[in-house]
Design a protein that fits this description.
Number of helices: 5
Number of strands: 12
Strand order of the largest sheet: 2-1-6-5-4-3
Distance between the termini: 89 Å
Oligomer: single chain
Structural class: alpha+beta
Strand content: 25-35%
Radius of gyration: 42 Å
Low-confidence stretches: 5-21
Order of helices and strands: EEHEEEEHEEEEEEHHH
Length: 316
């Protein structure tokens, strides 16, 4: 982490590249990373791309205004913080390397995380996330469940789940906020511990019901009768017609094939063998491209036309 601080009477000017800080940046623990990695509908990293916030207090003597912007650039997070007190403005630019922001929860991501906790009605135990304190320094942030309570919202009694977030500042005292969350995660009330004021919604929102995930349907295997299936039967007939046309075209292009078939039928009728298949194999055997050459001397043992000679042995 590196930062640069500049103070002017009216407006901050451009900054030069900051120097490296001497303090080691805090890191989120394994419990926080594990909780973020098990979020169902969110990316576990919850990377912030850009965030802008503004707070101001209107005093007649010394008005105050705080502005902070977070922008992710390449592999680092750039924070620009403007603090105006009266006529004096201080601008601080801090760069956080991407490796040091693992487990970082911004203000926007905090609302999403609180909603998930309210939806599950549970808070991770001993989880230590990363956050920014009031001075813009990276520090630890923890959550604690305070149970359930019934409060009045828009003249209605509603049950809320209370979560307390504590930001442990590096130099100052820890600051805690209590969030009163409805059953679907809506924020109903927010209290800053130690402050007399609080924030509360004036109107009761429409609560979202929990979605029940239905089990996947199981389809049993059915016997396939392609003759009764219109699509398969149509494919069969189309393929059959395609082969008939291809075969007819082949015979037109090769008239010698008809002469071969005519000779075979003539010999078949003249000899009338008992085994027509064996006779056909012997008749067309000499035309086979992979047939081994016949022996110079004929053997008295008649060899089967379907069996090739064993490798390493001369044909009988």
């Amino acid at each position: 982490m590196s930062s640069k601080l500049q103070s002017t009477g009216h407006r901050a000017k451009d900054h030069q590249p900051p120097a490296q800080g001497s303090l080691a940046a805090p890191e989120a623990n394994a419990e926080a990373i594990h909780f973020l990695s098990n979020l169902r509908y969110l990316s576990w990293k919850l990377h912030i791309m850009e965030q802008h916030s503004q707070e101001f207090i209107k005093f007649h003597i010394l008005p105050m205004e705080h502005k902070m912007s977070l922008v992710k650039q390449d592999d680092q997070l750039t924070m620009t913080r403007n603090v105006k007190e009266g006529e004096e403005m201080k601008t601080e630019v801090t760069f956080f390397p991407g490796s040091s922001t693992v487990g970082f929860i911004s203000q926007a991501a905090n609302l999403v995380l609180l909603r998930v906790m309210a939806w599950r009605q549970t808070v991770p135990n001993n989880a230590r996330f990363l956050a920014l304190d009031t001075e813009g320094k990276l520090c630890y942030s923890t959550y604690q469940a305070l149970g359930f309570q019934t409060i009045e919202v828009d003249r209605q009694q509603v049950r809320v789940f209370i979560v307390e977030q504590t930001v442990h500042s590096v130099k100052g005292v820890p600051s805690s906020c209590q969030f009163y969350l409805l059953s679907d995660g809506h924020l109903a009330k927010r209290i800053q511990v130690g402050s007399p004021g609080y924030c509360m919604i004036p109107k009761m929102p429409v609560l979202r019901e929990k979605e029940e995930i239905e089990p996947r349907p199981v389809f049993g295997k059915k016997p396939l009768v392609w003759e009764e299936d219109l699509e398969l039967s149509s494919r069969f007939l189309d393929r059959k017609e395609e082969l008939r046309v291809r075969h007819a075209g082949y015979l037109r292009q090769h008239p010698e094939a008809r002469a071969l078939v005519a000779d075979f039928l003539l010999f078949l009728l003249l000899r009338q063998p008992r085994d027509v298949v064996a006779f056909a194999a012997e008749h067309f055997g000499p035309f086979a491209s992979r047939r081994p050459p016949p022996p110079a001397l004929r053997s008295s043992t008649r060899r089967s036309p379907f069996r090739s000679p064993s490798p390493g042995r001369p044909p009988a």
